[in-house]
């Protein structure tokens, strides 16, 4: 583990302390979890953006979705929706 000195605005600090007391969880644990969740969300967003950029670059190329596969998938989804 590494330590990070993180100055917080007074209101944020007070809110964090209140939530920590209410939930009986140390404020440092809450802050760690919040930062980890934010970083994970950023990674997911970056991955999603990279996939979308790749799909846009590959659209219309030989690496684009196979039309027959796309049609078959849509047919299966329609049948599942009807059921």
Strand content: under 5%
* Count, helices: 3
**Count the strands?**
0
Amount of helix = over 70%
Structural class: mainly alpha
Approximate shape:
elongated
Q: What count of domains describes the coordinates? A: 1
Low-pLDDT residue intervals, each spanning 5 or more residues: none
For the report, how would you describe the main beta sheet? none
What would the average pLDDT be, to the nearest integer? Answer: 94
Between the first and last Cα atoms, what is the distance in angstroms?
52 Å
Question: How is the quaternary structure best described?
Answer: single chain
Order of helices and strands: HHH
What Rg is obtained from the alpha carbons, in whole angstroms? 23 Å
Describe the structure.
This protein is mainly alpha-helical. The protein has one domain (10-82). The chain is built from three helices and no strands. The protein has helices spanning 10-23, 27-58, 67-82. The longest helix has 32 residues, at 27-58. The radius of gyration is 23 Å and the shape is elongated. The model has no long low-confidence stretch (mean pLDDT 94).
């Amino acid at each position: 583990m590494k330590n990070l000195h993180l100055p917080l605005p007074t209101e944020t600090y007070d809110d964090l302390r209140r939530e920590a007391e209410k939930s009986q969880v140390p404020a440092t644990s809450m802050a760690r979890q919040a930062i980890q969740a934010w970083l994970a969300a950023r990674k997911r967003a970056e991955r999603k953006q990279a996939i979308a950029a790749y799909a846009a670059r590959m659209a219309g190329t030989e690496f684009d979705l196979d039309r027959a596969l796309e049609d078959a998938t849509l047919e299966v989804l329609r049948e599942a929706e009807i059921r």
